[in-house]
Design a protein that fits this description.
single chain; 176 residues; mainly alpha; 0% strand; globular
Amino acid sequence: MTKLQRVREIITGIITVLIALLMLLEPSEGYTAVIGILSLVYTVRGISMIIYYFTMARFMVGGRTALYIGIIMFDFGILTGTLTDVPHFYVLLYLIVIHAFSGAIEMMRASESRRYGGAWRLKLGHSIIDIIMALLCIVFLSRLSVAVIIYAIGLMYSSVLRIIAACRRTKFVYIQ
């Protein structure tokens, strides 16, 4: 990770912590913030994956997958942006699925890292927190403000992990 990437990750983490704190202070307005954040993140990631495909990935083996992922993420971003008038129950189900899926994927990545001798404890902790957040959203499905608080805490946790990852030293392997 270059110095510019580290600075960008730290700034993004700090901004995300501030947004999560605002959501904790105003949970009634947090529903709109959750939808806005999810829509913005998925739309930007989708566009960046599509740009990545047209600049580099189309020349790579399996590069078409980047295009498909970019299109799907862009569609999720647009879909999430249109959910402002939908009852909060559906958005909470959407959050539950996102957290459960990302927790399961992160758990598989931690298992793979452990098998190959990499750093796996932080990934495993992150996956467990994601799954716990999904379960807490299921428990408090009827209360919108509690679910927004749970999402804000998870957002804060993810941003702290992002800052920690940006401050870590990267290991270089030199082949002689």
